[in-house]
Amino acid sequence: MLERNLGYWTERAATLRPEGRAFIAGEFVNAVSAATYENRNPATGAVINLVASCDQLDVDAAVVAARTSFESGVWSRITPTERKKTLLKLAELIERDSEDLALLESLDMGKPVSVAFGYELPELVEYVRWFSEAIDKLYDEVAPAGEGNLALIRREPIGVVGAVVPWNFPLDMAIWKTIPALAAGNSVVLKPAEQSPLTALKLAELVKEAGIPDGVFNVVPGFGSAVGRPMGLHMDIDCIAFTGSTEVGKMFLGYSASSNMKLVWLECGGKSPNIVFADTENLDAAAEAAAKVFYNQGEICSSPTRLLVERSIKDVFVTKVVAHAAAYRPRDPLHPESMMGAMVDGNHANRVMEFIEAGKKQARLLLGGNRLTINGSENFIEPTIFDEVQNDHVIARDEIFGPVLAIIAFDTEEEAVRIANDTVYGLMASVFTSNLSRAHRVSNALKAGTVAVNAVDMISPLVPFGGVKQSGNGRDNSLHAFEKYTSLKTTWIKY
Ligand code: NAP
Ligand code: MG
To answer: What is 273-462's CATH number?
Structure first.
């Protein structure tokens, strides 16, 4: 049996020649300005490749390609069954190239390759299949308009969809935004994060091989101000689907208001509460789940970063969480047993360390708190746990997006719910209890797009994902995702 060990991944990484050019109208092209930037591997500091540093001119070219393909009908007006077949082919190609995709993701943003390969890629293949299969099973409506009238209510593709995504799950986010949009018949312009363009560009290669017509899928790499902003302000983009920080999400609302009132769908930040009641049946399982806050280096919007524990079990429970945190000792992301890789870059690692320093001034450091150097890179941070946190401490209010857990004690259910909801965010929440009434009562009271009971961070193509309050609007995943990428057309026929 093939053993994917450190040597295997290291050798394979050395043979990769990642694409760094933009993908516009079915071709890989340099930026019009010919500018490039150095794309680095955060786990070693080495330059992986030069990536096109695009700007307004490249965005314009991509939008023209997208618009032309959309209006021609080569994709937008073929039958949903034909689109399904092509997208299923794409799923097959993603599966075929899973190793390369996982490795590119790991090299680009520091996550453990075996997590990407063993867990994320198989899920993504299923995700693409799920949306491909869904599209020719959706029926439109006929209104009860009475004799002599036929009122048809149909869902049409919107047109040109701009997708702007972050670096924490580069391929997941690219797929979440573009596959439902493509399935519905739109043409797409995708901007990956500056730190992590490689899997989006590899996806473009597979899109072409699958037979999606030229111009339907475009990728424009570059910086937020040079590419994201002109997309947000573009007069010929009909919709922006954004995942990223709340700060930049707000900018997209502004861009829309000052341009063409394009639709803006936002999946933004989070500071998710995880409430553990003393009546929890399996405290070990709850502690293992709580330690998942360190998954993906803690760079997850929906991560359960505020652990609210009932005071009577706090010490016992916290000891268990600390024990489970050991599994996330930072290691070389290419090591097959690594569960925690490098922070995405030095700037972000600095920012996370600033939060840790702020935490040390206000709360009690229980575990970690240090930066580590591995393979010459200083971008590794230990799993860090703070006890005796108050909900008004900096580390309980701001999204850190790193491996930092804040523990807050509570005495009553009412107090737990109040603390949990005392945040500007509302993406995800968790409750651990064996009391069924309490599970329902607390789930109903929590202000979040998703509440997981006796589990954390439950995400699947089967159910909607997204937030309330300043975590954003709209929903990815499930059939509801199509609501973002279609508009309702009424055709009223008198006869
Ligand atoms: P970010 O700074 O908001 O960036 C997201 C995207 O927006 C990137 O492609 C970025 O380009 C672009 N951008 C930056 N400044 C821009 C501007 N002025 N105008 C237009 N576009 C601009 O977020 P990030 O640091 O990459 O990712 C971390 C954030 O994403 C966290 O807040 C996290 O909660 C959020 N997130 C949310 C979800 C969710 O589903 N709710 C999922 C994952 C991540 P550059 O790369 O060039 O800066
Ligand atoms: Mg990178």
So the answer is: 3.40.309.10
